[in-house]
Fold:
Amino acid sequence: MHAIINQTHHRDHVSPELEHNIEHLTETLRKIHGYILEQSKKGKISRFLRSADDAAEVQQYNEELRHALDLFGVRLFPS
Structure:
């Protein structure tokens, strides 16, 4: 988040590219938040029965978040 703040701090105007990247990150975080809320409403048995599907979905969200953060030069998990 510091990378985003540093790119926008003390600026009256941000570039269209930066604005697009911020919108992309925001949308990605909204999707992840919605998924987490959905999961929190499921019972243990339902989560157990769908665990393989959920693992694939979590992996997809991980990739989307990694891509969104890459636009800012931020690494999700250092190598």
Remarks:
- The chain has a mean pLDDT of 82.
